[in-house]
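Hi P.,

Sorry for the delay on this. The queue was packed all week, but I finally got your sequence through. Input first:
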Amino acid sequence: MSAIVEAISFGRSIARDRIRSLVCGVASPARKTKRLLMWKAYYDESGSDAKSRYFVLAGYVSSVDDWELFSDEWQGVLDQAPRLDYFKTTEAFQIRDQFAGWPEEQRNARVLQFLSIVQARALFGCAVAMPKDIYERHIRGVIPKFYDNPYYICFVESLEFLSDTMSRFEQKGPIDFVFDENNLEPRVRELFDEFKLKGGPNRGLIGEIDFRDDKKVLPLQAADLLAWRTRAHLNLNNEAPGAVVAIDKVRPASASLIIEEQALVRFVEAYQRSLHKDGAE
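Then the structure:
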């Protein structure tokens, strides 16, 4: 085996092992029914992207076995010349950093290769979108600062949306959530545990949660691509809040739930009632 082939094979085995490590200790029969959701947030918190009207949390669902195959294939596309250390959608579409100097045709061809892997290996995509204007109107400054971030509300909505979607697809096994590492992890874990105790009727389909480096766990790079594409679609189309919008009409089907204003109004009312209840006690 040549040094190049050995290096590529070694790289792909690492990519596969990182998926396997997410289910280490799970017996083989349970592993075959387990689903992993790779989530990625896409939001310009600095507000410098004035054209964007949404915060988006999005990801793909697939089986452990398919994510392993996905990782091998994705690594293979990364390894093509010119080689990429990782794939990040903003770098590709702004032709900067790793994509600096690439002709658009070359960039587009590489992106299409990544998309073809998603189409072959993902079961379906799911996204939750928060219109920035209604968040600023109803939430900003109303709740404690450490929870004043659209990420949290999108996260809880995504648990409800995804567990309901999984139920409609008649999925039998639990679904584990894998998020890109970020500094919101402690509070996200708290919300996750609370949802598993008090969430909707399909909360039994929710498994475990983990946070990993998106430069190492390759399906998170596909989630980044879906989040970017979802936000781009919503920015170009006047979709009604509360709607479930089809982002992809070919396999894998991908849908985005747009959080409606009344949902935030109800959230604030429930939060204020909880404050009064705590004060009375």
